[in-house]
Design a protein that fits this description.
mainly alpha, Helix Hairpins
Length: about 70
């Protein structure tokens, strides 16, 4: 998920997405340890998307305008 897409959402939507992605990340980690997963890079992408969402929420809380891509 791109930062531009996340910035277009409301705070409540982002919080909901964070909860869903944290559960998904837990499931991915659990499955990778027990049975293996087809796409191990999905864990990395999920972690980065979570960090991106949390960063944008923090920026909004502190009144910081996010950087736009060039």
């Amino acid at each position: 998920m791109k930062a531009k897409e996340i910035r277009g959402k409301e705070d409540a939507e982002i919080c909901f997405d964070i909860e869903v992605m944290e559960k998904e990340l837990f499931d991915l980690r659990f499955r990778s340890l027990t049975e293996g997963i087809q796409d191990p890079a999905k864990i990395r992408r999920t972690r980065r998307d979570l960090a991106r969402m949390k960063t944008i929420l923090q920026e909004r809380a502190h009144g910081i305008d996010g950087q736009e891509s060039r």
